[in-house]
Design brief:
Length: 103
């Protein structure tokens, strides 16, 4: 049995949500990482005047890795986790509507 038009719409909306949420979360994480690397660079450059042994490139790399290591996992969870709840909510609303229609 195929999907009816509402189910197809639900699948399209679910995929749109998943892709859009993944891209949004990923971009947000990388934007934040970029800002944090800039802050690290500024602070490291200032601190380097007092300590010549400081390697700013390594510090920036550590900052970048701290902010981006789990980006894909975090984005996937945010993208996929709400979808079953959306489907359950719609199913519940259909059930409520059918329940009150017969009463």
């Amino acid at each position: 049995m195929g999907l009816n038009k509402w189910q197809r719409l639900g699948v399209v909306l679910s995929l749109t949500w998943a892709i859009g949420a993944y891209l949004t979360v990923t971009k947000s994480q990388y934007d934040t990482a970029t800002q944090q690397v800039a802050v690290t660079h500024r602070l490291c450059t200032e601190a380097k005047a007092h300590s010549k042994d400081l390697d700013c490139t390594k510090e920036e790399e550590k900052t970048w890795n701290n902010w981006t290591d789990n980006t894909a996992i975090y984005a996937i969870v945010i993208a996929i986790f709400p979808i079953p709840f959306g489907w359950a909510f719609v199913d519940f609303m259909i059930w409520v509507r059918a329940r009150f229609r017969t009463s």
